[in-house]
Design brief:
Strand content: 25-35%
Oligomer: single chain
CATH superfamily of the domain at 417-512: ANL, C-terminal domain
Helix content: 25-40%
Radius of gyration: 23 Å
Length: about 525
């Protein structure tokens, strides 16, 4: 079954039930659509695209902030047999142009936040034939989304779509280099629905609060667990603790996927008295889960103090594995906080050495996974595909170890390992240790060049609001660490994270690797 059929079935079975809610607290706007309205909007867009010459296997790009139209646009593209190409909203105009040309996008559908960037490339791109603007104030040369779909047929286009048909191109987050387009099939997308629902047991009574950007596989594939059972979801614009708690309370959300910084902000707001939990109705909130990055155990200890009755889960995945779920902790394994878990439903996982041989428990190696969500490959890039796909196994580039109970612990990105004086230092281990400090909000550890040792570990520390720390205090706090793992320098700065919560270490290395380093021995 292609994933588009799930939407059509929901429209048939639950036509008048609310499917999506959009909340924009800053603008005091709330909108909603039913499953039938969702499906009709997708069908009308599909017919619009077909009238513009879009055919199966063509590419249609999406550049929109989270909004009520995002998912209907996505499914409308899929219903034509074309491939949806979601783009990162942080991309510059030149990066947008590069991605469009790499994908060979025939149409670009974009929101009002991107008018200036898109106008700069409208007459300067070789592949896009039609631009569609989704918004009310269209001062561009693009067609207006609402105007062009209104008179289109509302039935599903009669275009056969198979399970193995290509469905989407997702560009990697680029935290370790230039983004590459990942080719996913309908079968991949459906497998994400099944895995997510099996892990978090969504029913039609659940309500999923979606906050992360929908262009990324993470947020959308978690929502897929709701799609498969026809349950409601709320798209929240804004990440302030008050916005999140108000949405959970007023919409009666039962499942929330948070990124580490947002969970930290909620806890900081509670502890500072900025928010009072008694002002919100939160009893129905049954599950909080985190993914996209290693989760400091100290964070979950704090969270459980205020939300002791909530289930908790950690999810691990990559865009190359159709998002989260190839490894997950599991809601019954709170005693293993710190681990990313065991292989997910329908998945296999191993930790291997440089020769691809599985290493014993306790030893560090590269995590590889195998399952129905493994991508078809990198689009038009056979060489890069062969580097990461071997005999059906996806080589993740993440270093991990397994304990005696079979739980996998993420150690670090293979490319982020610091080699100092011949010793391997895994930044995540040092970051987790520093996260225990009560005055530290966020931290990143990177390797900086050193003539004697090759590299030295340096900590970029972001303090909590109103707190002050000195370099000497941080270095003293690190004394319990083995000598070679201790940061040699501390830099106080904001820790940059991408929209899915991953630390942007290339940004930090570019910013600070030219800095003169004073070495502490």
């Amino acid at each position: 079954m292609p994933i588009t059929e799930m939407l059509s079935l929901n429209a048939q079975m639950y036509p008048h039930e609310v499917s999506l809610v959009e909340r924009d607290p800053a603008a005091n706007i709330r909108r909603e659509i039913t499953w039938l309205e969702f499906d009709l909007m997708a069908n009308q867009l599909a017919h619009t695209l077909i009238s513009l010459g879009v055919k199966p296997n063509d590419k249609v790009a999406i550049l929109m902030m989270n909004c009520l139209e995002w998912l209907p646009v996505y499914f409308g593209i899929l219903k034509t047999g074309a491939l949806a190409v979601p783009l990162n909203f942080r991309f510059t105009a030149s990066e947008i142009k590069k991605c469009l040309n790499t994908a060979g996008a025939k149409v670009l559908i974009f929101g009002p936040e991107f008018k200036e960037r898109i106008e700069s490339i409208m007459n300067n791109t070789c592949c896009v034939e039609n631009f569609i603007f989704v918004g009310n104030d269209n001062s561009t040369n693009a067609e207006n989304f609402f105007d062009i779909i209104i008179n289109q047929p509302s039935h599903c286009p009669d275009i056969p779509i198979t399970d193995d048909q290509e469905a989407a191109l997702y560009f990697t987050s680029g935290t370790t280099g230039t983004p590459k387009p990942i080719l996913l099939t309908h079968s991949n997308l459906v497998s994400a629905c099944i895995t997510e629902n099996h892990h978090h047991l969504q029913t039609r009574e659940d309500n999923f609060l979606c906050i992360p950007p929908l262009y990324h596989t993470g947020a959308k594939m978690h929502w897929f667990g709701s799609l498969i059972v026809g349950s409601k979801a709320v798209i929240l614009k804004g990440v302030k603790p008050q916005y999140i708690l108000e949405a959970v309370s007023e919409e009666q959300a039962t499942i929330v996927w948070l990124l580490v910084p947002w969970a930290q902000d909620i806890l900081d707001a509670i502890e500072s008295g900025e928010v009072n939990l008694e002002d919100y109705k939160l009893d129905q909130w049954r599950l909080m889960h985190i993914g996209a990055q290693p989760v400091p155990p100290s964070l979950i200890k704090r969270w459980r103090k205020y939300f002791p009755n909530q289930a908790y889960d950690t999810n691990y995945g990559l865009s190359e594995s159709t998002g989260p779920g190839c490894v997950h902790l599991g809601i019954d394994n709170i005693h293993k906080v710190g681990a990313i878990g065991k292989p997910g439903y329908n998945w296999q996982a191993k930790i291997v050495d440089e020769k691809g041989k599985e290493v014993p428990s306790g030893q560090t190696g590269e995590l590889i996974v195998k399952g129905p969500g493994v991508m078809k490959g990198y689009y038009n890039n056979e060489a890069e595909t062969k580097k990461v796909l071997k005999d059906g196994w996806l080589y993740t580039g993440d270093m991990a170890r397994k304990d005696s109970d079979g739980f996998i612990y993420l150690v670090d990105r293979k490319k982020d390992i610091i080699i100092s004086g011949g010793e391997n230092i895994f930044p995540v281990e040092v970051e987790d240790f520093l996260q225990e400090h009560e005055d530290i909000k966020d931290v990143a550890v990177i390797g900086m060049p050193d003539e004697r040792l090759g590299e030295i570990p340096v900590a970029i520390v972001e303090t909590k609001p109103g707190r002050q720390l000195t370099e000497a205090e941080v270095l003293d706090f690190c004394q319990p660490l083995p000598r070679y793992k201790r940061p040699r320098k501390v830099i106080f700065d904001k820790v940059p994270r991408n929209p899915t919560g991953k630390i942007e270490k290339p940004v930090l290395r570019e910013k600070w690797c030219g800095t003169s380093i004073s070495v502490f021995i």
